[in-house]
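User: Sequence recovery, please. Input:
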């Protein structure tokens, strides 16, 4: 009984210093780095995030997906293609100095079907460096990109500028180092405005990407077409 009381007291104390947040988002296009995960169609997404005062955090995100065949292989009809993505994650955040914060994170991407002819599931490991809420740098690594058995690296720089109390301008430049998988690397970028009021956020963003091929031939592995310049509108409701 004493041990049970101690356990209950510990749990109550632990949860008292924890926060749980959630969001539901509707977007006109699920853009992920240098391509669309929804085949340029709308997507519905959700996220549940748990944060503790010790710096530990975890959660999961879900989204509808539709990779669709590339323009070069429209004649192929892949079976059992994924329509949902689930990505649980675990991480730890700690302060380096008054205005600097460092995060490490592990994510696992699960799909309810195949990504073309591959299983699609893979792990990704992240590192983040934040300066206040104004600047973030990110690097990530996967050893089995979309279950294809090859490594890939990704790097991002994000800047944010508060225009007013409820309006923020932000932009991201990224570089996907996917040469072992797709025979190409991909620089990509976005710029946009986010408005927040209470528990609602509206985002209007311009996305674009390009590709750097290292061989004359196109990669034999099918993958989504490189993102073309597009505007994306999203609305999120959170708690």
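Assistant: Recovered sequence (239 residues):
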């Amino acid at each position: 009984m004493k041990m049970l009381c101690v356990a209950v007291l510990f749990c109550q104390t632990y949860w008292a210093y924890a926060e749980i947040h959630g969001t539901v988002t509707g977007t006109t296009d699920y853009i992920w780095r240098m391509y669309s995960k929804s085949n340029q169609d709308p997507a519905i997404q959700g996220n549940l995030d748990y944060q503790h005062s010790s710096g530990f955090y975890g959660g999961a995100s879900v989204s509808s997906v539709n990779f669709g065949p590339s323009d070069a292989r429209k004649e192929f009809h892949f079976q059992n293609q994924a329509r949902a993505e689930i990505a649980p994650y675990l991480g730890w955040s700690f302060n380096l100095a008054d205005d600097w914060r460092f995060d490490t994170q592990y994510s696992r991407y699960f799909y309810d079907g195949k990504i073309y002819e591959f299983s699609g599931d893979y792990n990704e490991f992240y590192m983040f460096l934040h300066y206040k809420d104004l600047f973030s740098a990110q690097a990530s690594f996967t050893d089995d990109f979309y279950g294809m058995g090859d490594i890939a690296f990704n790097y991002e720089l994000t800047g944010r500028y508060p225009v007013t109390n409820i309006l923020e301008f932000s932009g991201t430049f990224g570089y996907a180092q996917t040469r072992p998988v797709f025979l190409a690397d991909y620089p990509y970028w976005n710029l946009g405005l986010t408005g927040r009021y209470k528990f609602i956020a509206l985002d209007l963003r311009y996305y674009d990407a390009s590709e750097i091929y290292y061989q004359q031939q196109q990669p034999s592995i099918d993958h989504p077409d490189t993102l073309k310049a597009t505007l994306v509108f999203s609305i999120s409701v959170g708690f």
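The two ends are 37 Å apart (CA to CA).
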